[in-house]
Structure formats: C-alpha cells, structure tokens
Design brief:
The structure is a homodimer. By secondary structure, the first copy, chain A, is α/β, with parallel strands linked by helices. Helix content of chain A is 39%, strand content 15%. Chain A contains 15 helices and 16 strands. The longest helix of chain A has 27 residues, at 363-389. Chain A is globular.
C-alpha cells in the first residue's frame, strides 16, 4: 500500500502521517475493515523511522479510527466515517460538436427470460476450456516481449491466420500485411474514419443501419447521409453526390437482413471507381450463413482497391474476446497502422497469439460449424413460429447471421411493443430504433442469446401481447 | 474449413469446385502441406453430394496439386504453386490532413545487448504465475457475460480498485464512477481529445515532450503549440493565448525528468481556471519514485475540476497488459464513456476482472515495491557511472520513473551518437528526437530493460565511442 504523505514540513512527521491517514479515512479512500501496511513497510516507503509511523498509528487507535489486532495487523476501525468528501462537478464541458451520449449495452443487468436481442452469440457454445489453455500457454515469461511495445498492426501469426481465414471462408484476397488486427468492427471503422474522413466530408450509411457507425462518423465531423435499403440491400442509385465513403453491410444488411444483390454490388463498385469513393464493407456475421451460395464479397469483386473489408470475432466467437480486423488496400496500409498506433498503441500480444493458434488450428472453423448447426435450428424454429403465431409481422428475407427482422403489416408503434414486451420478460428490438428517415416499424429478433426451448413460449407471449391490443 | 465456391451455375458443380480449389491453390490462399476438409464435410457445407467434391479432389490429385494420404486426408501437394496473384496497390489515399506514419516500436526485432531504451519496464519482475492464475480463473463460462456487450467505462471492480489505488498511492480523489478504464495512456488521451478538441483548437504540449501525444492531438486538427520546459518543468508563463488544452507530465517531465514545481502547479491551475483550459495530467511512471516527498498531483490540487488525470499499468506492470485509466471531472464523464463506446466498444471483461483482483489483493503494490527496489539500485548505479564515465553529459535532475535524461555540455549531434552506439550494441535515445523547437541535444537512458550488470559495460562502450570522436 502506497500512502500519499506530504513530509515537506521538517518538524512534525508523526503529525503529518497522522493527518494523511486521517484524511484517507475521512475521505473514504480507505474503508472500514481495510488493513494498513505494517508500520515497518510504510516507514521504509516514507523514509522515516518505524517508530514515527507506529506513533501515528497508535494515536489513531486511541481515537478508535484504527484497530490493532494482535498477531495480525492494523485495520481501519468501525468508527472511521466512510463519507466521501463532497466534490465539485467539474468545470470542463465537451466541445460543441460532441453530442454522443453512451448507450446502454446488453451486458448491463440480468438477462431477460426470453432474450431475442440482436447481435449476441451464444457463449455456451464457445470452447472456453480450449481458449483458456491457449491463453495460459501464451502467458509465460519469455513467450513474448511483455515489457516492450508491439506492432500496432497486430501479432504476425494472427495477421497470417486471419488472411487465410478470410480467403478460405469469404473469398477475400489478402496478404498478412493487408490485415490490421483491431478490438472489433467498431475500432476498425474508427481507424478508417480517422484516415479517410475530413470534417465536412459526405459519408453514406444504410437506413435503417448500424447506429454506432453513424454516430462514429458524425463524431469526426462527417455529414452523414442515410441511404434507403430495399429487398436488394442498399439502393445504390440513391447515393448522395460527392460522397467520400459508403458504409455497407452487403452479406446481411443490418438490421433488415437482405444481402446486397450482385447487380447492386457491381453498381456500387462502378460508382466508387468513377467517383473515387471508399467502400467500407462490414461483414459482421456472415460466417453464419444458411445457404450454399454466398455472393462474393465486395472486396473480392473489387478490381481497383476501393474496398476496406471489416470482420469481427464478436459474432463468430464471443464479443468478450475483443477481436476483429480490417483488410485494406495497400495504399492505406501505413496510414491505418499509424492510426492504430495513435488510437491505443497496440493490442495484447498474448491474446493475439492465442487467437492465432485458435484460428490456425482449425478451432474457429470447428466452432463456426457447430454453432451454425445450433443457430440454424433456432432460426428455422423462429421463422416457423413467427409465421404461425405472429401473422401480423412480415419477415424480411435473409440468408445469414444471428437475427431476423420483421415489419408490421399494419401501422404499429414498435417502440411501444418493445417496452410492453420487456415487461412480459421478452426482449426484442424495435426496427425503427435503427432508422433515421426510413419509415420502417417492426421487430428485430436475435436467436443467438435465446435458448431453443424458449423460442416458442417467448413468441407466444409476444403474440398474446399484440392480440391484446395493449401496445399499438 | 470454409471454402468460397460460387455454385450459381447450375450445370458443372464438379467443375465449379475444381476451379475454386485451383484458384485457392494458385493464389496461395491454401499452401503446400495444408490439409483440405474431408470431402464429406465440404460437401455438406456446400450443399452438394459428397461424390461431387470427391471427383473435384481426384482431378486435382491427378494433376499433382493435391496429395491423398491413405488413412489421413487430402493435402495440398508440392506442385501447388504458392505464388500469390499480383494485386493492385489500391486506389484509396488518406485524407489530406492525415500525415502521421507509423513509428517503429521497441518490441520489433531482437533486444540490443545493452538496452537503455526508455519506457520499457523489466518484464522479468512481473509475477506471471499469479497473473496467469487470475486470468484463467476469470476465463470460465458463466464468470461474466462473454456473449454480451459490457460497459465502455470498464469492469466495476476494476474502476473501484483503480479509484482506491490512485487515492492511496497518488492522493488522487476519485469515485469509481470517475474512472474510465482504457488500453493505456494513449487511448486515454485519445478519448479526451475526441471529446475536447475541435479542429483549429490551440493545444499546448511540453517541448521536449511525448511525440505520440503531439501527433494524436494534431491528427484531430488541433494547432499544437510546443511550450518550453526548464528545471521546474513546463514554463507556464509561455503558454499560448486561447489555449484549450494543456498536456503535461508533472511528476516526471517526459523526457527531461524534473517534476513540475509546486509554484508552477499552482500557476498552471490558476491559468486554467482563469482561461477555461483543460489540463491533461499524464502520471505515466510516478509509481517509481525515489524520494519520500512526492508533490501533490494537479488533480489533487485542483479545486475546480479542470484536470483529467491519466495513469497506466504499462510502466507499473507491463505494456502487454494494455491497461490504463483516466480520472475525469464529473462534467466530462458521460462524454468520455461515450467516446470509449464509439472508439472500440469496451475492454475485455475477464482481463479487467483479473486486473481488479490483482490490484485489490495488493499484488500491484507488492510488485511496485519490489520493482522499485530493483530500479532504484539500477538508477543509482547508472547515475554514478554516468558521472564517472561520461563527464561530457550533464544529468537532468529527476525523482521518479524508469529513465534519466542527460544533455551534452558541448554541441553534439545526438542522433549520430545514438546511431553509432547502436552499432556497438548500445541502445540509447536521442533527446533531440523528442523536441520540436527546443534546442536540446543529449541522451535518454532507460534502466527498466537493461540488466543491472550490463549498465557499467554499456556505459563504458558509450564512453569509448564518445572519446573516439567518431560521433560528433
């Protein structure tokens, strides 16, 4: 325990230590039941005689603020008032352009009984024992250079493993040098935005779409233009003029679901090439696809190097790993690695080495195969039960991922439905919450978090709620 | 193994699979010696008959590109040409304002024999066994919500542990809610810059100072003004007009060494309060102090809430942990948590929980005490040997940290000395490399990475080099 004691006053050292301890107790910095360092240790740290500290301790013991336990040590006693000092609210305000407020996340609070929230994979399927073994193996002295500062681009083994993984699973052509490891899709987009977006630049996002992408781009001063989505995905013809960057989810439009059609893919690439636009392809959950014919990624179709491809292990494994990646054209490589260096230095070398082994050993592919079987079963059940129990909802077609979206056939206040459903223990999301200008109302239903046997009872509750007319 | 195969052509499925495999081999996406998935598995993934895949495999075996090993599987054969397809350089350039290029870091390449590089702690001192046990204990199914998205501010236990740690060790007054856990000082400053700095804002940094702070602030469009440093630290009188934010290292000026004097601390706080300036106090390595009288932190002296305090575990433990924190006035709390959410979502819950236990159990304090004894010994030896062997260097006074700085008494090209020294196996850093306008030449000598017994021979080599006149 280090204790901040001002010993500048030559004279009363016992008093100075006494006052510092008193202040620490009074301010609540040390709490009732805390053990103080032995007087010998504190004395050495402060460069004073042991007796000086012991005397200060004794004074506080006499006052009942400390408690000496024979053969054990000195503890903060019951009389110590734990009231923290009242503190100023601060005199610093965010800059005028900063408007984002943190959004509650799925990890806060207990799980609802029927948890259809989107984007949450089933952590029960993740092979924790294997992962723990791999991490522990890397956490040995000498395994890396833990005292030193590693490459911002990521561990070489992980970059190589990711390059092979995206080549094999998604047809993405990448050298290991094209890969930058990130803490997930959000950080990958952050690096891209740093490097590409000047304040005032026009950027396009899908509407409805991923709110954190919108907010992030806006926080860099971009003019964010929402572009409509239809059954073929992003409506490329509606891209605004002088757009600098397009953020899109071609495999599984988020949150609606349809893949971007091949004709639209080609149109988007042509548009990008003609107007010097950057395309950010977010392939967030395409490992889980339920068709044998995935469309080629924009990155694979791109002949000119206008696509930055983003992938994540948050869906294919679990978000707690905090691992994702981007694959960038060579012309952006240095800038993106530099952006990572400025953003947060570099990622954890031992976690990255463990993940490299996990991917290279085929554990990722094995997990994806197993999880896809489970998710596929839940998905089929969900679609069947939606059709049976909730005919007022029209399910949007999709071929991949961990959720489906469905729109209401009749005008419905989807936010009210979501709020009422939560009171019944059913967590779903409102489609309108993802929209800026798009007139969509409906529900987003995830099948990663929900147990298979909870799907039918959860939808039954939802159906009863809608039939009751309580939430319109 | 997932393989991207376009089966849109109804007709020749064997041919489509054959061509996809061929392309994967030719492009180097699968390498010589790689094992292909069993035909049964790939067939199921692609939704075709097993025989379709087997026929495609056989064709490639006949051509020598695959190799069937009886009782084992199908492997990529020696004839498979591993040449990757030539690829376009890309057609995306960074925005005009993006000028930063990544900087080589200490973790790349082998250690030099006499490693006096600054800022590297001795990883041999870190209790890896304890750490591994704590991490493994948290990496169990159900320990957290690994499938869900956690709080951007950090694990509650870690925020509480940090609040107590900074209160006790540095006199910093903080509630757990005032703490945001980050991946280190760099990310902490990044969050602050996002929230406080508009393009065109004037920000002040120390000169010489920390280059990554300078570069980061510039990347947000700030006008970065270098402010001189003297024996009392930052020269507060030289702050530019209309400054929005001051980045400073009061405990141990980086890289020169002196602490900011108490008079300067008070002047800086007064200035900040009068002109509505934000102060960012980077307390990067002050856990290692070699005096019994640390000055109070700016955060503790601040009566108005104008200070954001940054701390890191990169020096007190090891950089590989990727853990640091900021303590902010209440008025910035939401904005900073939101900034973290936009930057990269949140940090690893199990790593944060393990670190919380490490700090709360007193392991951090124990490690700091032990490491400080080792560093103190090295420091004394280094100072003694510098005086004895290198009288042409004048050591700048400092009372904390993992390095000392020394200026040349005669005009000397310090970069040339550093380059010549590295050829002799001695890694030191040039003071001028940290300066913008300050006319300093000298050496920065770390004592975290260097072994105690290497200090004298390393300095002897350096002395011989300087005496030889080869590097002037």
């Amino acid at each position: 325990m280090d204790l901040s004691v001002d010993l500048d006053t030559r004279g009363d050292r016992v008093g100075a230590i006494y006052r510092a301890l008193l202040e620490a107790i009074r301010s609540g910095r040390v709490a009732v039941g805390d053990r103080l360092p032995p007087s010998r240790v504190l004395a050495r740290d402060l460069g004073v005689a042991r007796n000086t500290v012991a005397t200060a301790y004794e004074r506080l013991v006499a006052e009942g603020l400390l408690e000496a336990r024979v053969g054990d040590g000195t503890y903060v006693g019951d009389l110590a008032a734990p009231a923290p000092a009242p503190r100023h609210p601060g005199a610093l305000d965010p800059r005028p352009g900063w408007t984002f407020r943190p959004v509650p996340v799925s990890g806060e609070g207990p799980s609802p009984p029927y948890d259809f929230r989107a984007g949450i994979p089933d952590a029960e399927l993740f092979p924790f024992d294997t992962w723990r073994r791999l991490v522990a193996a890397e956490l040995r002295r000498g395994a890396h250079h833990p005292g030193r500062y590693a490459s911002p681009a990521g561990h070489p083994d992980l970059r190589a493993a990711i390059a092979r993984h995206v080549a094999l699973s998604r047809g993405v052509a990448a050298d290991p040098d094209d890969v930058v490891v990130t803490h997930g899709t959000q950080q990958a987009l952050d690096l891209v935005a740093r490097v590409l977006v000047e304040p005032g630049d026009v950027v396009a996002v899908e509407d409805p779409g991923y709110p954190f992408a919108r907010e992030l781009l806006a926080s860099y001063g971009a003019r964010v233009v929402p572009v409509p989505v239809d059954a073929d995905g992003l409506v490329v013809d509606e891209l605004p003029p002088r757009v600098r960057l397009v953020f899109t989810t071609p495999s599984h439009q988020f949150p609606l679901g349809p893949p971007l059609s091949l004709a639209r893919r080609q149109a988007l690439l042509e548009h990008a090439n003609r107007h010097r636009v950057a395309i950010v392809e977010d392939d967030y959950d395409s490992e889980f696809r339920y068709t044998e014919r995935p469309l080629e990624t924009l990155q694979a179709l791109d002949r000119h190097g206008r696509v930055v491809y983003l992938g994540t292990f948050s869906k294919s494994l679990v978000p707690a790993l905090r691992a994702g990646y981007l694959v960038a054209p060579r012309s952006l490589r240095d800038a993106l690695v530099g952006a990572r260096q400025l953003a947060d230095g570099f990622g954890s070398p031992h976690e990255q080495a463990a993940l490299a082994r996990f991917v290279a050993d085929g554990q990722l592919a094995r997990h994806v195969r197993r999880a896809r079987a489970v998710y596929g079963e839940r998905r089929e059940l969900l679609l069947r039960e939606l059709a049976r129990l909730l005919p007022g909802l029209e399910v949007a077609p999709s071929v991949a991922g961990l959720h489906v979206s469905a729109t209401f056939r009749e005008p419905t206040d989807d936010a009210a439905v979501v709020a009422a459903a939560l009171e019944e223990g059913v967590a779903v999301e409102a489609l309108s919450a993802y929209a800026v200008a798009a007139p969509v109302t409906g529900l987003v239903l995830g099948y990663g978090a929900v147990e298979t046997e909870s799907i039918t009872p959860g939808l039954e509750r939802l159906a009863r709620l809608l039939a009751s007319g309580r939430a319109r």
